[in-house]
Design brief:
mainly beta; Immunoglobulin-like; 3 domains; 6-stranded mixed sheet; 4 helices; globular; binds CU-O-CU linkage; binds copper (II) ion
Length: about 475
């Protein structure tokens, strides 16, 4: 009996060996190939951006008060807004790489708030996400945000509490970290794009996160503004070489700015310099995104009015105009546009296995009537995924809905590597990527900054109704 059983077992083992052996070998080969690809991609990444900040000693201190204010968005109307330091947009903080930013936020709103430094690789505790990295700053209280940025570029900041309402009412500002080694432009302009939903009396329509917003691409307004004004004019001089930093702070609207008749080059996206400059054609600037442009004003343009138009929707409209002063042209500075010091090749990124997939959909129910979900869960119930720092990851973001989702990952930069499974070679980093209806996007990243980082849709109504999760980088 025992012998028969033993023989049977032996037979089974031999059979398993012949059948499963090659399978097991193929599996381990695949695993080895995967780890080869990941090792190569990780290696290529090295030096793309710094692991740590390099404080040089200087501390730049600013006071910032979040409070109700009055602003003339569409004169002669006076609109009640919420603002940082009584201005729309809020302050533009310009510091130099190596300097430490210290901002004391005082909350004079009737509700809690925080500041999130969008795109800045801050220590996790400075990231401003209530319930994830800090308790909210209560009405009447203050909080000090202090950090030394690791990267140069164009960043912005906004609250992360009741975000859809607080940002829409006017709470946002810009942080520019300058690199003293970069060439000097004749002029450096910041264009904060927003769009407001105003009533006929010029007041902000005060129903937020409506079912309509949730069933669509968030709240789209009826008054687009640049730097808090409807169609402002910005003075430039003929011959100037201008760096233009464009930030989209709208809750939901996507912009695709164009400069008809001019040929700006994109030199940075989401703060980070591109691998090489490229001409601005159609660039979808989704909520949260930034681009930096290198633009030469033709030296024959004296007195011209050069419009900047939005081309995202079929109704093109003028966002602002560059008003060229009538005086003589200035000499155009000649230099090679700045570009990333090291940009990984990542030619094999599309061979790497997908380590995590995130599915986006909506269901009826929840506090707003419609819930937006990531992997079947609506925040604050959200999921947590873990990523190992210092190692290449390929993440798949799959939109199972018919709406737009600009997905934003805090604390990390990533590269788009595929759309609907087809490799794409974007030669720049992002912190926010727009995903179209039923589209699936693959991103590659090597996380460096440890902590708990929010990962959410930057259509703020979608995020408010649940479209957020967290990523833990170990
Ligand atoms: Cu600008 Cu959590 O976002
Ligand atoms: Cu969304």
């Amino acid at each position: 009996m025992i012998v028969r059983r033993f023989l049977l077992l032996l037979a089974c083992l031999i059979l398993a060996g012949t059948v499963l052996g090659p399978w097991a070998m193929a599996q381990s080969q695949a695993v080895r190939d995967d780890s080869d690809v990941i090792a190569t991609l990780t290696k290529e990444f090295e030096g793309a951006f710094p692991q740590n900040s390099a404080p040089q000693g200087g501390v730049r201190e600013f006071e910032m008060v979040a409070a109700p204010a009055v602003w003339g968005i569409v004169p002669p109307y006076r609109t009640d807004v919420w603002a940082y330091n009584q201005q729309i947009p809020g302050p533009v903080f310009r510091i130099t790489l190596g300097e430490t930013l210290k901002v004391r936020l005082t909350n004079r709103l009737q509700q809690p708030t925080t500041i999130h430094w969008h795109g800045v690789r801050v220590p996790n505790a400075m990231d401003g996400v209530p319930g994830v990295t800090q308790p909210p700053v209560q009405s009447g209280e203050s909080f000090i945000y202090q950090f030394t940025p690791k990267d140069t570029g164009t960043f912005w900041f906004h609250p992360h509490v009741n975000t859809a309402e607080q940002v829409e009412r006017g709470l946002h500002g810009v942080l520019i970290v300058e690199d003293p080694g970069e060439p000097r432009y004749s002029r450096d302009l910041v264009l904060v794009l927003d769009d407001w939903l105003l009533g006929p009396d010029g007041a902000i329509r005060d129903r937020f996160v409506t079912r309509h917003d949730l069933a669509h691409d968030g709240r789209w307004g009826n008054v687009p503004t640049v730097n808090g004004r409807l169609q402002p004019s910005l003075s430039v001089r003929a011959g100037e070489r201008v760096r233009i930093r464009i930030v989209n702070v709208a809750n939901g609207r996507v912009f695709a700015p164009l400069f008809p008749g001019l040929s700006p080059q994109v030199i940075a996206v989401d703060g980070m310099l591109t691998a090489a400059p490229f001409p601005l054609q159609r660039f979808n600037l989704a909520p949260g995104n930034r681009i930096d442009l290198d633009l030469i004003i033709p030296d024959t343009a004296q007195g011209a009015v050069l419009p900047i138009v939005d081309t995202y929707t079929r109704n093109r409209f003028t966002l602002a105009a560059l008003l060229v002063e009538p005086g003589p042209a200035v000499e155009t500075p000649r230099f090679k546009p700045p570009q990333a010091a090291h940009f990984p090749d990542w030619g094999r990124a599309a061979d790497a296995p997908v380590s995590h997939e995130y599915l986006f959909d909506a269901v009826r129910g929840g506090p707003y009537g419609i819930s937006w979900r990531i992997n079947g869960r609506a925040w604050p119930e959200g999921t947590e995924t873990e990523l190992e720092s210092g190692r290449f990851h390929r993440l798949r973001l799959t939109n199972e809905s018919h709406r737009l989702h600009p997905m934003h990952l805090h604390g990390q930069f990533f590269r788009l590597i595929a759309r609907d499974g087809k490799p794409v070679d974007e030669r720049f980093w992002r912190d926010t990527v727009l995903i179209g209806p039923e589209e699936s996007v693959d991103i590659g990243l090597v996380p460096l900054d440890k902590g708990l980082w929010a990962n959410h849709c930057h259509i703020l109504e979608h995020a408010e109704a649940g479209m957020m999760s967290v990523v833990r980088v170990n």
